[in-house]
Known about the structure:
Elements: E1 6-12, E2 16-24, E3 30-39, E4 43-44, E5 47-48, H1 51-69, E6 75-80, E7 86-95, H2 105-115, E8 124-136, E9 139-142, E10 152-163, H3 164-175, E11 180-186, H4 187-195, H5 198-203, E12 205-210, E13 215-221, E14 224-231, H6 235-245, H7 250-260, E15 273-276, E16 285-288, H8 289-313, E17 324-328, H9 337-345, E18 349-351, E19 358-359, H10 361-364, H11 370-385, H12 390-397
Parallel strand pairs: 1-6, 3-19, 6-11, 12-17, 17-18
Antiparallel strand pairs: 1-2, 2-3, 4-5, 7-10, 8-9, 8-10, 12-13, 13-14, 15-16
Helix pairs in contact: 4-11, 6-7, 6-8, 8-9
This protein binds adenosine-5'-triphosphate and magnesium ion.
Magnesium ion binds next to loops.
Amino acid sequence: MARANIFVGLEIGTSKICAVVGESRTDGSLRILGVGQVPSRGVRKGEIVDFETATQCVKDAIAEAEDKSDVTVGSVFLAITGSHISSFNNRGSVMIPEDQEEIEDSDLDNVRAAAAEVSIPSQNAFIHSILQHYYVDGQEGVLNPVGMLGRKLDADFHIVHGIRTRIQNAIRCVKELDVEVEDAVFSPLASAQVVLDHHQKNLGALLIDIGGGTTDYIVYVDGAVKQSGTLALGGDHITNDISMGLRLPIARAEKLKVEEGSVILGNCLPGETVVLQDESGFVGKEVERETLNTIIHMRVRETFDLLKRKLQQQDNYLDYLGAGIFITGGCSLLKGIDHLAGEVFELPVHIARAQSMAGVKSAIENPQLAAAIGLIKYAQAIHMDKPRGWISRLKQKLPRFLGLLLFFIS
Length: 410
Ligand SMILES: Nc1ncnc2c1ncn2[C@@H]1O[C@H](COP(=O)(O)OP(=O)(O)OP(=O)(O)O)[C@@H](O)[C@H]1O
Ligand SMILES: [Mg+2]
């Protein structure tokens, strides 16, 4: 069954590929109707490395989502990530024509285009241009300048860009299945739609989505996106470290991490061990709990240290995060990760997942699905503002932009 108010979020993640089908209701609420999720193959560090295999996984995830929701998936909103994605802030300025009395819609388009008149590497494409603030004749904090009197309009934007072919490969994976990609959305921007509320964005918040192969982040201050990016580090690195350090096969190291691991040091009894049972193909083994936790701790600390340095190297907003840090993604389930983040960033830390959503409870409660669920909220926000078909027409007009020019998403 195909319905007009149905949206599908698709994440081609390093650990899992998932499609979430959601319904937007007339009162503005959202309901998750069904989820399709399969283990990921052909993806490394959030990017496709084996096109055919990844495409097959996408096909399976979509088929499962269709079964569970009784919806035929014709199009999706796609989460994209990868360490090739970069961002920066830029201001656009335009003079309002002398013969024009008040600021018009077309001036907003012009100021947006002016902000995008910056050089990015030739192999890159713009993904988002997210509005931060307008200024009319120097007046700060203007939310909507249309209809105001003014001679000069400025606007600050957060601009996200990445390597064109890598983004296109993810899109082609979906198109190969005769499914349209309505928009490609940078993954942490999608997660933030459902993990953070307006109040937290206004107070200032850092969202960290730690998955299998990447750590995506986005910083909001005064309700606007100020920083975003991706580190090519995630839970797979922890599993690899355990596998190498304790000489265990990857599958066993993964199980040990998920079932017994913690990032807290000094909590174990002297000589305390974890006994790995004899199971199919694996002989039994004992590992020291403190050694296991030390391996996990070191990798997670390295990730947080790196992220902190990266945030400080750009404009440092860490002192403006009144709401603190919100960790989501599969690795948010690691025991004690909030304590370690608090120690490194010296800020309050919350383990977070999608908020205020109805429908399949197990999906909403699963932090691994934050990005895919967030895509549905993103889709809803866009379609409440503009009818379907508007995005593709906009893209035809502005080929430099792969994605959407976000005036109304924050
Ligand atoms: N209960 C748990 N405890 C610890 N780690 C967990 C738990 N559950 C899942 N993980 C880890 O979370 C990671 C997968 O998270 P997620 O599904 O968010 O990644 P992904 O979206 O597929 O990857 P990416 O976004 O990096 O491309 C894996 O490393 C997995 O080991
Ligand atoms: Mg992910």
